[in-house]
Specification:
With about 325 residues, the protein is an alpha/beta fold. About 45% of the residues lie in helices and about 20% in strands. It has helices at about 1-15, 35-50, 70-80, 110-115, 115-130, 165-170, 185-190, 230-235, 240-255, 255-275, 285-305, 310-315; strands spanning about 20-30, 55-60, 85, 130-135, 140-145, 160, 175-180, 195-200, 215-220, 225-230, 280. The structure holds benzoyl-formic acid (173). Benzoyl-formic acid binds near residues 163, 165, 199, 224 and 226.
C-alpha cells in the first residue's frame, strides 16, 4: 500500500522528481584554503546545504596535490572532473582566449547584463566543452612583486615568475618571464631563480612568499579572475532544477563580492605594510605609462592568439 502511494506521488510529480541526486567532482586549481580557493569553498558548502537531494559537490581538493596546475582545463574538458575553480590563465592550453577574463574592466554583474557573459559562454562551450557558471574572485588587481628595487616603470634585466596573465606585459617591459605554477614560486625565490613574480594584491602570505618579497610595484593592473566552470556534457545532463539550484547559489556568492573583496584588499595592503614590504609607487605619467602598457600588451597578445574572438571580447569587457 505504502509503495503504491509513493509511486502515485512520483508519477504525479513528473519525471523531474524521479531524478537522482547527482554528485559532481570539484577541484580548485589553487591549494585548499588559499585565498583564491576560499570563494569556491564557500560556494560548495552552500550548494551542499541548499541543493540536498538534487545536486552535491564532492570537493577533491586543490592545487598540484590533486592534479598538475596547468592541466586542470584539460581535465575539465575531457570530463575527468565535473567542476573547476580556476583562472583562465591556467587553461590557455585548451583555448588561448581563456586568458582574456583577466582584462575585465567591468564586474561580473555588468558582464551578465551587457552580453559579455553570454559571449564568454558561447566560446567556452564551443572551444572548451565548458559551461562558465560564474565568478569566484573579482576586484583584486595584479601587482609586480620584487626582491630588487626599480626606479622607473621598466623591468629590464629582471627574471620574473610568470604565467600567461603577465607574459606580454612582462616581455614588453623588458623582463624575462619564467613560467611556473604558484606552488613553485617559494623555492624559486629562495634560490634566487627569479627576482620577483606577478600575483594579485591578495594571497601572497598563503604560500609564504612574504619572506622573500621586498617590494610591491603600484599601481596594480587588470582584475584577477577566478571562476567556477562545469564540464558542458555534465551540465547538459542535469535537470533544470539541478542547474537552477547551482545558478542560484552562484548568484548568492557573486552578490557578496563587493563586500568580501573590498575588505580583503584593504586588509592585505595593511598586512603587507606590517610585513615590511615597501611600495614602489609610480605616479602621474609614469603610472599611466605602466597601466596603459599592461592593457595594450595584454590585449595585443590575446588578439594575436585569437583573432576570431579577441576583438569582441575586448569590446565587451572594456568600460565604454
Ligand atoms: O598564477 C597566477 O599568477 C595567476 O594566473 C592568478 C590568476 C588569478 C588569481 C591568482 C593568480
Amino acid at each position: 500500500m505504502k509503495k503504491l502511494v509513493i509511486a502515485a506521488a512520483l508519477a504525479a510529480a513528473g519525471p523531474a522528481a524521479l531524478a537522482q541526486e547527482v554528485t559532481l567532482r570539484g577541484v580548485s586549481a589553487f591549494p585548499e584554503k588559499n585565498f583564491q580557493s576560499a570563494g569556491f569553498e564557500r560556494f560548495i558548502q552552500r550548494v551542499n546545504a541548499e541543493c540536498k537531494g538534487q545536486v552535491q559537490i564532492n570537493y577533491l581538493g586543490g592545487g598540484p596535490k590533486v592534479m598538475p596546475t596547468l592541466e586542470v582545463g584539460k581535465a575539465l574538458q575531457s570530463g575527468v572532473i565535473d567542476m573547476l575553480n580556476s583562472p583562465g590563465s591556467f587553461y590557455t592550453n585548451v583555448f588561448p582566449e581563456s586568458d582574456a577574463l583577466k582584462m575585465g574592466q567591468i564586474g561580473i554583474a555588468e558582464q551578465r547584463k551587457n552580453g559579455a557573459f553570454a559571449y564568454i559562454n558561447e566560446i567556452w562551450n564551443k572551444k572548451g566543452n565548458m559551461y562558465y557558471l560564474g565568478r569566484a574572485v573579482e576586484g583584486t588587481p595584479f601587482h609586480v612583486y620584487l626582491t630588487k628595487k626599480i626606479d622607473k616603470p621598466e623591468l629590464n634585466g629582471l627574471r620574473l615568475r610568470s604565467v600567461s596573465v603577465y607574459q606580454d606585459f612582462f616581455v614588453t617591459s623588458g623582463a624575462t618571464p619564467i613560467t611556473m605554477p604558484p606552488t613553485d614560486v617559494f623555492t624559486a625565490l629562495e634560490r634566487g631563480v627569479v627576482d620577483g613574480y606577478g600575483w594579485p594584491i591578495t594571497g601572497i602570505f598563503d604560500l609564504g612568499w612574504d619572506k622573500h618579497t621586498k617590494f610591491r610595484v603600484d599601481p596594480g593592473f587588470y582584475n584577477a579572475e577566478v571562476s567556477v566552470l562545469v564540464n558542458l556534457t555534465k551540465w547538459r545532463s542535469l535537470t533544470d532544477a539541478q542547474r537552477g539550484c547551482l545558478e542560484k547559489q552562484m548568484a548568492w556568492l557573486e552578490a557578496q563580492h563587493a563586500e568580501v573583496y573590498g575588505k580583503a584588499v584593504a586588509e592585505e595592503i595593511k598586512r603587507q605594510e606590517a610585513a615590511g614590504i615597501q611600495v614602489i609607487k609610480f605616479e602621474g605619467p609614469q603610472a599611466k605609462q605602466w597601466s596603459d602598457r599592461a592593457v595594450e600588451a595584454g590585449w595585443a597578445g590575446i588578439i594575436k592568439n585569437s583573432p576570431d574572438t579577441g576583438p569582441r571580447l575586448r569590446q565587451l569587457l572594456s568600460k565604454q
